[in-house]
Amino acid sequence: MDDLLKVAPGDLPGAEDRFDRLRRIRWWRQDRLREARVLVVGAGALGNEIVKNLALLGVGNLLIADRDNIENSNLSRSVLFREGDNGKRKSEVAAREAQELFPGMRVQWFHGNAATALGLGVYRWADIVIGGLDNRETRLAVNASALRAGVPWVDGAIEELNGVMRFFAPGEGACYECTMNEADWQMVHRRRACSLLTREEMLGGRVPTTPTTASIVAGMQVQEAVKYLHGLPVLAGKGVQFNGHTHDTYVIEYARKADCPAHEAWDPVVELPWGTADPTLGELLSRVQGDLGAGAHIELAQEFVVALDCGACGKKDAFFGPLDGVPEEKATCPGCGGLRAPELTHVVRGEEPFLDLCPAEIGVPPYDLVLGRAGERKRAYAFAGDREAALGAAGGNGR
Q1: Contact between residue 299 and residue 264 where contact means Cβ atoms under 8 Å apart
Q2: Strands (E), the chain
Q3: Which of 36, 310, 344, 353 could serve as a FRET partner for 242 with CA atoms 20 to 30 Å apart?
Q4: 166-198, pLDDT tens digit by residue?
Q5: How far apart are CA 240 and CA 251, in angstroms?
Q6: What is the pTM for the complete model shown?
Q7: Average of pLDDT values for 382-394?
């Protein structure tokens, strides 16, 4: 993640207050928005509208995460992008344009897969998360991360002239995973089961839609975020369906699943002085066991590949990282040319052959959290040594 973009002065002395019309709203608190910390995941059609709205409203601290570069097809649906931006990082350009709209905004951008490369500490920094996403797997990852961090998130989805906005808050109603039906899970499982060679292609979202639909849904998302930041009632555990053919809207309340595994918050949190590149996994496990007892183990925030196994010839090689980080050439067995299956883990118990590696070496992203667990006892650990690198000057005091 690059350093924070340069912060320019905000309102000009002597000029009419740029937020005068907003301040005329009886309950409005411009100071609350200036202090707010918002994480936007996805900088496509929805993300552009979300970022634009946040800048116009005077939100003071923004982090934009996206893994893609700008293409020609983005230009018809993305207000922040220009022809000269083709090939550039979406998150970087969106951050630049947001600060152009509101020079007083402190903007940080992150280019990478938010599902695997954005640490949980970044979510804990945020007051609220807003998603402009195009696939279920990333929504599941954002949902789990936001709930573990104890922050709400606002989901949006668009297709053709229709769209939906949903608000998910820890401990209040359903979460995104609660809304998944059997067909949704079958699609996710098919994607996870497909070979490493085709996985990236299957994850790519190419949804037909219009800039007008993106504007409507993103407007509802940001409106809910503004309400939340002001302490007003929000549609927690509910969604708003928009039918662009008839302009009908209606609210849906989703059923909360009591046994949904995503509801567990990772708390209390201990701020470690280490970054993910500092302790070995063995040293980290020793710290956890010193706190929780000799039988404690570590749970990682996601599954990581620890080996690539060829079922055809039996050759097995160590490999570490998130699944989306496996290079295409590594998916093919060097011995027989067959496709290799990844061996995954998210638990460190003490018998692993890679305890001498540091968390960063197996793929744990900067400023992430791990969970120590011993029976019913648990404690989360944040790699606070990475905070400045992950957030730049936008970190403030935060969480």
Answers
A1: no
A2: 37-41, 61-66, 106-111, 128-132, 153-159, 162-168, 238-243, 248-253, 269-272, 297-309, 316-321, 341-348, 369-374, 377-383
A3: 36
A4: 999 999 999 999 999 888 878 777 665 554 544
A5: 5
A6: 0.91
A7: 87
